Amino acid sequence: xxxxxxxxxxxxxxxxMTMPLLLKEIAxxxxxxxxxxxxxxxxxxxxxxxFVAMFKNR
Length: 58
Description:
With 58 residues, the protein is mainly alpha-helical. The chain contains three helices and no strands.
């Protein structure tokens, strides 16, 4: 599953938080049963940071 979320809408709903905690909240909202498991699984959610490379050489 690939999704994009509107940052402003998310700020209104769940307030400002660190990126790792935000993944947990997204997983919970999507209904992942492993959201509270220990470790870094986070229901296999991750940030696509590929776009960051575009800005490194500016």
